[in-house]
DNA sequence: CGGTTTTTAGATATTTTTACTCTTAAATGT
DNA sequence: ACATTTAAGAGTAAAAATATCTAAAAACCG
């Protein structure tokens, strides 16, 4: 019950793009270096984020990624679920038909609540707030 | 980011034992049948639950499992973490040294909060309450 | 005591997921 | 045209999940 590496990398990538600002083009190489993400893996992650309309990919020399959403409108939950899919916590929340008891099960109700709370917390945090605290991006300022 | 099958099975097993009552011996075969758990897999799960002092295993004919904790003192969180280990949600919460930014990272703080809330929710539910609602154990009453 | 039943505990096996990596090709600035 | 940069998808290695198998131990029964 933990976030995958791809999810964590996606957050770091968007953190860096948010720090640079919406609409600003940043090269893949730079992001990979600053955020400690394997470059080829970053490609895969960026593709998913593009599908989710969070960023746009520009090819060619001077290519890279551009954040298309305003950091103030973009939450942790959106980025995470773009990569790992919707969070459910337990299988019977995703597919209630897998357990005949799901419509009356007391445990099921706890998972529903837990899921709602977790997603609320992750959805209440926007990237503009995250990057506003300069301390949270200690090595973004360093030269590459 | 979801509970493993072993975790779900553990909850069902303890649900059934709680329904039968603390100190009551129930055979493995019966639990496996009622809770739809592969019998051999149930052995492995029971071993973990015994290590966590939640139940005791009795061998021999008329053997089985006995709940050693009072259902009112036993929470969902205890049972789950006995099987899947402590919940952390993100690697850097389990091992802050894996990311140099962890002591100042704003995202890290969100995960700390999310983890605390999730564990609180799971820890606030005891098994006596779960089994008190007769509807949550629809097929426990059926004959085997 | 000896046989039968029931579970143990560890080894093994299969499948799925994770976490990358490689390769070929496409896009684009100069 | 050509060099640079990324795309897209196939491929792979390792880990985790999900069981299953087997030899043996425990305990009841007659
Ligand atoms: S028993 Fe309850 S919690 Fe478990 S799978 Fe069924 S509905 Fe979900
Ligand atoms: S960047 Fe923040 S959230 Fe991500 S691993 Fe480091 S401390 Fe954790």
Brief synopsis:
In chain A, 51% of the residues lie in helices and 7% in strands.
- What bound compounds does this protein have? iron/sulfur cluster
The largest interface is:
A-B, 41 and 41 residues
CATH topological fold name of the domain at 5-86 and 126-132 in chain A: Arc Repressor Mutant, subunit A
| Physical arrangement of strands within the biggest beta sheet of chain A | 1-3-2
Percent helix of chain A, as a range, is 40-55%
Instruction: Supply the CATH superfamily name of the domain at 5-86 and 126-132 in chain A.
Output: Winged helix-like DNA-binding domain superfamily/Winged helix DNA-binding domain
Largest sheet of chain A: 3 strands, antiparallel
Total number of beta strands of chain A: 3
User: How many helix segments of chain A?
Assistant: 7
Shape-level CATH architecture of the domain at 5-86 and 126-132 in chain A? Orthogonal Bundle
State the CATH class of the domain at 5-86 and 126-132 in chain A.
Mainly Alpha
**Could you report the average pLDDT of chain A, rounded to the nearest whole number?**
92
Q: Which parts of chain A are unreliable, with pLDDT below 50 for 5 consecutive residues or more?
A: none
List the helices and strands and how they pair.
The structure is a homodimer of 144-residue chains.
Chain A: H1 5-20, E1 25-26, H2 28-35, H3 39-51, E2 55-58, E3 64-67, H4 76-84, H5 91-94, H6 106-123, H7 127-132
Antiparallel strand pairs in A: 1-3, 2-3
Helix pairs in contact in A: 1-2, 1-3, 1-4
One iron/sulfur cluster is lined by residues 90, 92, 99, 101-102, 105, 107-108 of chain B.
Chain A binds a DNA duplex (30 and 30 nucleotides) through helix 3.
């Amino acid at each position: 019950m933990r976030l995958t590496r791809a999810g964590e990398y996606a957050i770091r990538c968007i953190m860096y793009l948010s720090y640079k600002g919406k609409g600003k083009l940043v090269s893949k190489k730079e992001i990979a270096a600053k955020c400690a993400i394997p470059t080829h893996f970053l490609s895969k992650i960026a593709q998913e984020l593009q599908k989710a309309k969070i960023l746009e990919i520009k090819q060619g020399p001077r290519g890279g990624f551009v954040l298309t959403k305003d950091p103030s409108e973009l939450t942790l939950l959106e980025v995470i679920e773009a990569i790992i899919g919707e969070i459910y916590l337990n299988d019977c929340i995703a597919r209630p038909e897998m357990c005949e008891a799901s419509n009356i099960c007391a445990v099921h109700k706890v998972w529903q609540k837990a899921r709602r709370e977790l997603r609320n917390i992750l959805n209440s945090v926007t990237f503009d707030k995250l990057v506003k605290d300069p301390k949270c991006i200690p090595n973004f300022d360093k030269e590459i």
